[in-house]
Write a structure and sequence with these properties.
40 residues, alpha+beta, 2 strands, flat
Length: 40
Amino acid sequence: MSHAELVFDTNPMSRGRIVRWLLEELGPPTRRCYLITQQL
């Protein structure tokens, strides 16, 4: 059985780092896409 890769969209300064940590601990194949936002 093959597993699909998770794509995790995050901003480096967001609370998404908690989810990133959890995914690293669980170990599924994951690809991170960093979204850079600018404050005006």
